[in-house]
Amino acid sequence: MKKALILVDIQQDFLPGGSLAVPEGDAVVPIANQAMKTFDLVVATQDWHPANHRSFASRHKGRKPGDIIEWKGLSQILWPDHCIQNTPGSAFAPGLKVERIDKIIFKGTHPDMDSYSGFFDNGHIHETGLADFLKKSHVNDITIMGLATDYCVKFTVLDACKLGFSVRVIQEGIRGVELKKGDCEKAINQMKEHSAKIIRIHDLLGNDAETGI
Ligand code: VGL
Ligand code: ZN
Question: Is any atom of ligand 1 closer than 6 Å to the C-beta of 152?
Answer without folding.
Answer: yes
